[in-house]
């Protein structure tokens, strides 16, 4: 049992006062008294002078006995104190061992899913998150994986372009503007009147940016809730989404994986295009988040990955849910202020929304 600071103080005070308490108890049960006499009278002038000498002798013996008892009490207290310290040390060791055993299953799971991602090429560890970067090399394409374990609500956010509805900026610009450690492109967008607006339902800081829009065709909403858990799917009403307490999120098409099962890909998205640069967000059963950013030379369908190939990766990596994000020239991964992937436009594309990560 861990003692509070007040309990430790009370125990220390009690140990310090024990010798004096023991002495007081001894004096209360011992037939001991001291008689004071007038300093002006000599011992010889007192009728009971011999008895005063006896009292002095008895007092001396009593004090000697008290000193012996006090010494014994002090020695006992020292032994108890040493035992107390050793007991605390043993309990601390037991608690640390118990904590390690409790965390062992989570550590084993994390080791297992991490090993499937291949060799780690970079990482960031802080009080807000742990972010690990991996290189992906498949037969027909290459790319990167970013696995993120969030530790606080400050570790990840969704940012509008220049923090404005209708604004746009590259992922690198968003990272540098906000002081983020990493960034990944987020939802789709639509251009109108010279501005770039986020596609469909978008939530930033717990608020709907432009109201709620019920899912239509193959659109979905994906984001994080107040428990740092990835939430996503099709929603017919705002009340349905509100029940999940979204903190932030964006919309795109299509959903790839749900509850550990790959979903059927709508025919439109199987060929439009067939292969392309891709960005995907997925989750693990321990609520860690996985981003895949796949490179491709262009968007004409001759390079990059198919959505079926992405599904195979998501299954191989052991993810639970998976959602396709805006791809093509939008696919961007920034880590430690550098562009990690190879954007197919040859330069970074200004976007309406970006996922950002903070130390």
Automatic annotation (TrEMBL):
Key words, A-Z: Glycosidase, Hydrolase, Membrane, Transmembrane, Transmembrane helix
Q: Does the keyword Transmembrane apply?
A: yes
Q: Which residues cross the membrane?
A: 12-29
Question: InterPro entries in the record, alphabetically?
Answer: NAGPA (IPR018711)
Molecular-function GO terms, alphabetical: hydrolase activity, acting on glycosyl bonds
Q: Where is the Phosphodiester glycosidase domain positioned along the sequence?
A: 179-358
Give the protein's recorded name. Phosphodiester glycosidase family protein
């Amino acid at each position: 049992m861990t003692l509070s600071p007040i309990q430790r103080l009370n125990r220390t005070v009690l140990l310090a006062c024990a010798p004096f308490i023991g002495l007081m108890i001894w004096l209360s049960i011992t037939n001991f008294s001291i008689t004071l006499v007038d300093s002006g009278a000599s011992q010889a002038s007192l009728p009971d002078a011999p008895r005063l000498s006896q009292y002095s002798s008895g007092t001396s013996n009593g004090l000697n006995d008290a000193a012996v008892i006090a010494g014994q009490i002090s020695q006992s207290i020292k032994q108890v104190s040493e035992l107390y310290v050793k007991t605390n040390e043993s309990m601390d060791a037991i608690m640390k061992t118990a904590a390690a055993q409790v965390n062992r299953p989570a550590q084993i799971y994390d080791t297992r899913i991490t090993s499937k991602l291949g060799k780690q090429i970079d990482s960031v560890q802080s009080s807000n998150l742990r972010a690990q970067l991996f290189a992906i090399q498949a037969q027909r394409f290459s790319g990167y994986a970013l696995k993120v374990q969030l530790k606080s609500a400050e570790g990840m956010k969704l940012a509008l372009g220049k923090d404005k509805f209708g604004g746009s900026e590259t992922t690198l610009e968003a990272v540098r503007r906000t002081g983020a450690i990493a960034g990944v492109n987020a939802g789709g967008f639509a251009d109108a009147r010279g501005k770039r607006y986020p596609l469909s339902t978008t939530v930033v800081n717990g608020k709907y940016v432009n109201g709620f829009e019920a899912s239509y065709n193959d659109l979905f909403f994906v984001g994080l809730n107040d428990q740092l858990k990835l939430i996503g799917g099709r929603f017919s009403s705002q009340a349905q989404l509100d029940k999940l307490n979204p903190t932030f999120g964006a919309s795109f098409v299509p959903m790839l994986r749900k509850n550990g099962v790959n979903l059927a890909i709508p025919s439109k998205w199987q060929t439009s295009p067939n292969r392309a640069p891709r960005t995907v967000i997925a989750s693990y059963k321990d609520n860690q988040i996985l981003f895949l950013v796949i490179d491709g030379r262009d968007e004409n369908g001759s390079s990059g990955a198919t959505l079926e190939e992405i599904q195979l990766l998501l299954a191989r990596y052991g993810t639970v849910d998976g959602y396709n994000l805006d791809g093509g020239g939008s696919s961007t991964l920034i880590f430690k202020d550098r562009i990690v992937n190879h954007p197919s436009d040859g330069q970074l594309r200004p976007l309406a929304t970006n996922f950002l990560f903070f130390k």
